[in-house]
Amino acid sequence: MKIRRLGIPAIALAAAGALVLSGCAGGDTPAEGGNASIITTNGSEPQNPIIPTNTTETGGGKIATSIFAGLVSYTAEGEIENEVAKSIESDDSQNWTVTLNDGWEFTNGEAVTADSFVDAWTYGATFSNAQGASYFFDNIAGFDPEADAELTGLKVVDDTTFTVELASPEADWPLRLGYTAFMPLPSVAYDDMEAFGQDPIGNGPYMLDGEGAWENEVGIDLVTNPDYDGVRKPANGGLSIVFYASQDAAYADVQGGNLDVLDAVPDAAFETYESDFPDRFVNQPAAIFQGFNMPYYLEHWSGEEGKLRRAAISMSIDRKEITDVIFQGTRTPATDFTSPVIDGYSDSLKGSEVLEFNPEEAKAKWAEADAIAPYTGTFDLAYNSDGGHAAWVDAVTNSIKNTLGIEAVGKPYPTFAAALEDRSADKLTGGTRAGWQGDYPSLYNFLAPLYQTGAGSNYEDYASPEFDALLKEGASASSVEDATKKYQEAQELLLVDLPTIPLWYSNVTGVWSDKVDNVVYGWDSVPLYTDITKSE
Amino acid sequence: MIWYTGKRLLQMIPVFFGATLLIYFMVFSLPGDPIAALYGDRPPAPGVVEQIRAQYNLDKPFIVQYLIYIGNFFQGDLGTTYSGRPVSDVMAKAFPITARLALLALAIEAFFGILVGLVAGLRKGKLFDTSALVVSLLLISVPTFVIGFVLQYVFAVQLGWARTTVSSEAPLSELLLPALVLASVSFAYIVRLTRASVSDNLNADFVRTATAKGLSRRRVVGVHVLRNSLVPVVTFLGVDLGSLMVGAIVTEGIFNINGVGGTVYKAIKLGEGPTVVSFIAVMVVIFVLANLLVDLLYAALDPRIRYAK
């Protein structure tokens, strides 16, 4: 009798458990081997539905550039090649005429016309649509950042021609047209943009593999678009992007043969990836600039004293040693404010010796500044502790501490949001980590948003009329060469003022399996998926 | 017992409201603007952030946000994530896979833990007992992520016996490795709990009586010793189910399992109130039910325990 009281609940429990276990596992597994030439790669769940003008992060960007084709696309070196555009011309760098190639179609059969671009850009720029990339249209005449307004600068001439009037001249304006924000949209998108973003229809080299191709938090399956006939014609059958919460898992998957191409080697594997994947790894500079900013509202950090202290701090950091030891050579010490992959990058700007480790000079400058006003207290450097920054922040503050003999410490914030709050509210007590990933391969994109007076990402309130003037001259220069010269002069001003202390460029580190060939990583750290071939 | 069960179920109501209010407040109090942080180093045009804040009711005071959430909750709407997905969809994906993983781990740790603990307790001081103690000490002291990486490297990368990460279908065969990792630490605790409790009970009066009555050794151990020794183990398992459900972040990360732990962690980092609260509310219910089940099992296991009307 007594044993039954144990028996029944125990048996019931076991049976229930077995039911749950087996019942849930009843999903169908797809047949293996049917995807001979599908390339698998790592990615992350897009932050928003795939609407080009609202896709500003890498997870969604990778998908958007694969399924859409814009006026131009970028080569591995960051040069532009015409894609849908036949020509993009201007006599004065301000009024542009865009002519489209014939024969482009969205995968639903709709023709890609001038309207496809103009309507998409107008949607993206319209205030009430609250698109994250709306500021990319801010130089088009009629743009209003605070209210709905017509983009008067966009005019459709005929099906294959439209004109663009910019608010101010911009010599390298076509360079930005390969960015996701400038992709065309089919007219069906405007019926329900959110729904369109879940199941986007594009005109790019790949398209979604039918219903349910995008499985949230798991991955997205793309297949080649048979009607695509542009410069990025895929050499494989498709692209399967697997979303990972941790790069360590992705790395293990390449090792275990479940993933073909990885574009971010995790920190833990920095020491071993070259021997784990001999001849199948990459470690090259990418369009990512990293440094730290000293706010101008802090005592000691503005005016002549501030300039001296900024230079002293910069020269007290041993960048080479930190990139070698902490990052195992996966960062490249900075010599300017842009990136080595950007046309116009320079390692010999006037005044760039301020970015070299020079303890004597650093001490001398610091002493000079102390003569103006003596420095007391602790130097701190703010960072978000959820982003893997602690190691290098400690190394940098130690380097400063050892060279200048002042107290220097890292100041961790629990999350990026918390750090950003103090940064936006001008409440920092010291320096702050700062970084920039180029949206499109242009010097201007690395300078204007960060250091122009009043610019969106100029949190630390740097203001220099000379710098602004040089930027403007560069933008309106008649040729890209002249523009580059102006942008370099502008950077030479930055080297004197040091609104940010440049540290290094982040490299793209990647590995790939022995099943794939022809893996080349682009200027934007993303592999050129369409060129990859795969053998089983 | 029905009366008792009903009373316990009714107690869930205040627990539910208290827990959701508290959690919602904690997420609300996280520093920083979650929407501004979505855009990283490049802030969108002025006004975009405000519009999105308004869309998610983040511009309203805390209590209004909470009441809106609760109001929608009772209409079956759990809100949306910042990427516009309904939270109910996210839950429908995360919970089944985590439940399978947790139950599998629970089954492994309970079966092997009790078995090893029982044998160790019966042969106290012998070689098996000593090795069981050493192994369990080792499992307790090595961090889970080390066990996870080592098992993944050896069995998946080197030997190729298992898949390195779990695919989206997550069949049981793929979940076995992560379940082993999850079960490892609790297995060690269960071995120790069972062992201690078995060796205690071996000297108990009722065991001596049973032996004196002439019952076989098998029956004495199986019915009288083991059953009474399971009370602390069942208590532990009940609590462990809860922590396995939500605390598997590390293991989920290593094996790329898109489960509850990782989802809640991500939502907390993003400051997504509705997601965090909805998940935690379900966790609270699971905890309460698991505890109720444990309490009912006590009565089944130990004849001295009775729940009066």
UniProtKB/TrEMBL annotation, chain A:
Residues 1-27 form the signal peptide. Pfam families: SBP_bac_5. It comes from the Bacteria. One of its GO terms (cellular component) is periplasmic space. InterPro entries: Peptide/Ni-bd, SBP_5, SBP_5_dom. CDD domains: PBP2_NikA_DppA_OppA_like (cd00995). Transmembrane segments: none annotated. Residues 79-457 form the Solute-binding protein family domain. One of its GO terms (biological process) is peptide transport. One of its GO terms (molecular function) is peptide transmembrane transporter activity. Keywords: Signal. This is ABC transporter substrate-binding protein. It comes from Cryobacterium cryoconiti. The lineage of its organism: Bacteria, Bacillati, Actinomycetota, Actinomycetes, Micrococcales.
UniProtKB/TrEMBL annotation, chain B:
It is a multi-pass membrane protein. Residues 95-298 form the ABC transmembrane type-1 domain. The keyword Cell membrane applies. Its main location: membrane. The chain crosses the membrane at residues 12-30, 97-120, 132-155, 175-191, 225-250, 276-301. It is found in: Cell membrane. SUPFAM superfamilies: MetI-like. GO terms for biological process: transmembrane transport. It comes from the Bacteria. Belongs to the binding-protein-dependent transport system permease family. It holds the Pfam family BPD_transp_1_N. This is ABC transporter permease. InterPro entries: BPD_transp_1_N, MetI-like, MetI-like_sf. GO terms for cellular component: plasma membrane. Keywords: Cell membrane, Membrane, Transmembrane, Transmembrane helix, Transport.
